[in-house]
Automatic annotation (TrEMBL):
Domain OBG-type G: 159-327
Protein name: GTPase Obg
Domain Obg: 1-158
Function: An essential GTPase which binds GTP, GDP and possibly (p)ppGpp with moderate affinity, with high nucleotide exchange rates and a fairly low GTP hydrolysis rate. Plays a role in control of the cell cycle, stress response, ribosome biogenesis and in those bacteria that undergo differentiation, in morphogenesis control.
UniProt xrefs under HAMAP family: GTPase_Obg
Organismal lineage: Bacteria, Pseudomonadati, Planctomycetota, Planctomycetia, Gemmatales
A biological process from GO: ribosome biogenesis
Region annotation (Disordered) ranges: 119-145
Uppermost EC category: hydrolase
Localization annotation: Cytoplasm
Complex and partners: Monomer.
Residues annotated as binding GTP: 165-172, 190-194, 212-215, 282-285, 308-310
Binding site for Mg(2+): S172, T192
Length: 359
């Protein structure tokens, strides 16, 4: 079962109570207070981990509560802090405060994490309350309550390239041909209802992640069909590989179908519509597919590839084009990151302010 949305109740552990205690020694009849502080409660943390691919494991447990800190002891012994409670999620998970709707963090990479339920601070022992006028305090801190709230988790699949197109355009077949992924394949709409990921090996250790995304139809930007489910996941991809079926079984026109999907992308998100796109006419084994490719290229002024997942025609060209586009984008991202890197100044050098030199 694939689950990409879930709501959870989280609560940090309460802080342990402080201790009321007094020294009891044979030759110290009036020993002072020696109550230790309570330990801090554990926090609830959402963390992106490598071995998770969807949110299904979280559907069986809706409430996550960290343990409380231990109470303080005598002889100024502090209570132990409780361990944090980790909620493992896949990279690409967006964490929101459910009631406020604000994003707490977008967990893009493995190791990214956010504290969603802060543990309570441990209470003070009576030693803390001793004063010159109160040498035997019996006050203590009860420990703070842990933070609690409802959170919503939303997974957006992260892939280098995403296959888009009308249902039955051949996306699942292409993914299974290029990788070891085994998506469900059949000749009816919406075979793919969940994103499927595959690793496409290029040469040596070089590879990219390819996602087969649910089919898109007219009205998707308003949620028709699997619209919002599709569009949410495609936002994460660097490159769009747009498959156009030359002879749709419903009798629709290939060129118009291409225009329809481009329109839906623009209606949902302009940044999404502006992603680099590689257009491919699928099912090259069908007679007349070459003519459809030429018409698409001419009417839309596009560079269109022709390929077949059945015969293998054009697959190497498609993989090469996708790999090169991804490499170009990564290089541009690295150059942009380098331009934005702040200038570092040595702290050992003097700072000049006017004519004065500060040591």
């Amino acid at each position: 079962m694939f689950v990409d949305r879930v709501e959870l109740f989280v609560r940090g552990g309460d802080g342990g109570r402080g201790m009321v205690s007094f020294r009891r020694e044979k030759y110290v009849p009036r020993g002072g207070p020696d109550g230790g502080d309570g330990g801090d409660g554990g926090s609830v943390i959402v963390r992106a981990v490598a071995n998770a691919d969807n949110l299904a494991p979280l559907t069986t447990k809706k409430h996550w509560k960290a343990k409380p800190g231990e109470p303080g002891g005598g002889s100024l012994c502090a209570g132990k802090d409780a361990h944090d409670l980790i909620i493992p999620v896949p990279p690409g998970t967006i964490v929101r405060d459910r009631d406020r709707g604000n994003i707490l963090k977008d967990l893009v990479n493995v190791g990214d994490e956010v504290t969603v339920g802060q543990g309570g601070k441990g209470g003070r022992g009576n030693k803390y309350y001793a004063t010159s006028t109160n040498r035997t305090p019996r006050q203590f801190g009860p420990g703070d309550d842990g933070e609690e709230r409802w959170i919503s988790l939303e997974l957006k699949v992260i892939a280098d390239a995403g296959l888009i197109g009308f249902p039955n355009a051949g996306k699942s077949t292409l993914l299974s041909r290029l990788s070891r992924a085994t998506p469900e394949i059949a000749d009816y709409p919406f075979t793919t209802k969940i994103p499927n990921l595959g690793i496409v090996n290029i040469s040596g250790d070089a590879a990219f992640v390819l996602a087969d995304l649910p089919g898109l139809i007219e009205g998707a930007a308003q949620g028709v069909g699997l619209g919002h489910e599709f569009l949410r996941h495609v936002e994460r991809t660097r490159v769009l590989v747009h498959l156009v079926e030359p002879f749709p079984t419903d009798g629709s026109d290939a060129v118009q179908n291409y225009r329809t999907i481009r329109k839906e992308l623009s209606l949902y998100s302009m940044p999404l519509a502006e992603k680099p796109e590689i257009v491919c006419v699928s099912k090259a084994e069908l007679t007349g597919s070459e003519e459809v490719k030429e018409r698409l290229a001419k009417e839309l002024n596009l560079d269109v590839l022709l390929m077949s997942s059945v015969t293998g025609q054009g697959l190497a060209q498609v993989v090469g084009r996708v790999a090169q586009t991804i490499a170009d984008l990564k290089r541009e991202e690295a150059e942009e990151a380098a331009r934005r890197k702040p200038i570092e100044f040595s702290t050992e050098k003097a700072i000049r302010t006017g004519d004065e030199v500060l040591p």
